[in-house]
Design goal:
12% strand, 2 domains, alpha+beta, elongated, single chain, 5 strands
Length: 226
C-alpha cells in the first residue's frame, strides 16, 4: 500500500513529466534548434556526453513549479547555501564537456530565496532555446502533502472551492441552537452564508496584506510579495 506521507522527491516529479520518447524528442529538438540559430546559450555542451533524462524544457519546469508553488530563479537570488556536492557536480560537468558553466537556475520553495532552509532545491544550467540541464539536487524532499496544500493557490476557482468547503465545515461544526431556538435548513444556509463571508474576508485581508498571488503568477518572479 502506498504511503501517502512519503516525502516528495522533486527530481522524480520532474522525471515523470517526460517519457523515454519525449526525452529523446527534447534532445533532438534542442540540438536541431541550436544548430539552426546563430546565437546560442552561454553554456556550450557536448551533446554526445549529455544525459537526455536531465534535459527539461521550460514548460515542464513551469508545470511542476506551479503544482508545488515553487520558484525557478537565477542562482543569485538563492539565499541558502549551495553544498559542496552540488559544486562538485558542476565541476564534473565542466570537465566532461570541456567548458565553463554560468547563469545557473535553481528551483525551490519561495521561502528559500529569502531564508536559509533545506527543502529540495534543484540546480539547473541553461542550454539555450528554453531548455535546461538538471545538474544536482540536494536537501530534504518536499512534504508529501505540499502539492495538496498548494492546490487552492493554482487559480481563483480552486481557491473559491476551498473557501466553500471550509465554510461548510465550519457551519457544520457550529451549533445552530446558539443563534435560533428552532434550527432548520434556512438557519443553516444563513449561517453558511455568514461563515463564507467571514472566511473570504480573512483570506482577502491575508492576501492583500502580504501581497500574495496565484502559483502561475509567481513561479519565476523574483519579488517577495507574490
Amino acid at each position: 500500500m502506498l504511503n501517502v506521507m512519503t516525502p516528495t522527491d522533486l527530481e522524480k516529479v520532474l522525471e515523470r513529466t517526460h517519457t523515454a520518447d519525449t526525452q529523446e524528442q527534447l534532445f533532438n529538438n534542442l540540438k536541431q534548434n541550436l544548430e539552426d540559430i546563430e546565437i546560442q546559450s552561454v553554456n556550450q555542451f557536448d551533446f554526445d556526453a549529455l544525459e537526455t533524462h536531465r534535459i527539461y524544457h521550460i514548460d515542464q519546469i513551469k508545470k511542476v513549479s506551479i503544482q508545488y508553488r515553487l520558484r525557478f530563479l537565477d542562482s543569485k537570488f538563492f539565499k541558502g547555501t549551495i553544498p559542496d556536492e552540488a559544486q562538485a557536480a558542476v565541476a564534473r560537468l565542466e570537465t566532461t564537456h570541456r567548458t565553463t558553466l554560468a547563469d545557473f537556475k535553481i528551483m525551490a520553495p519561495s521561502i528559500m530565496f529569502r531564508l536559509a532552509k533545506t527543502d529540495d532545491p534543484l540546480l539547473f544550467a541553461p542550454m539555450g532555446n528554453d531548455y535546461f540541464y538538471l545538474i544536482h539536487k540536494w536537501g530534504n524532499d518536499l512534504h508529501p502533502l505540499r502539492r495538496l496544500r498548494m492546490w487552492p493557490f493554482m487559480n481563483i476557482w480552486n481557491l473559491l472551492l476551498m473557501l466553500l468547503v471550509v465554510s461548510g465545515v465550519l457551519t457544520s461544526l457550529t451549533p445552530l441552537s446558539i443563534f435560533t431556538k428552532n434550527p432548520d435548513s434556512t438557519s443553516f444556509w444563513m449561517l453558511y452564508f455568514f461563515m463564507f463571508k467571514a472566511v473570504v474576508s480573512i483570506v482577502l485581508f491575508y492576501g492583500f496584506a502580504l501581497g500574495k498571488n496565484f502559483n502561475p503568477a509567481i513561479w519565476n518572479s523574483k519579488y517577495n510579495k507574490s
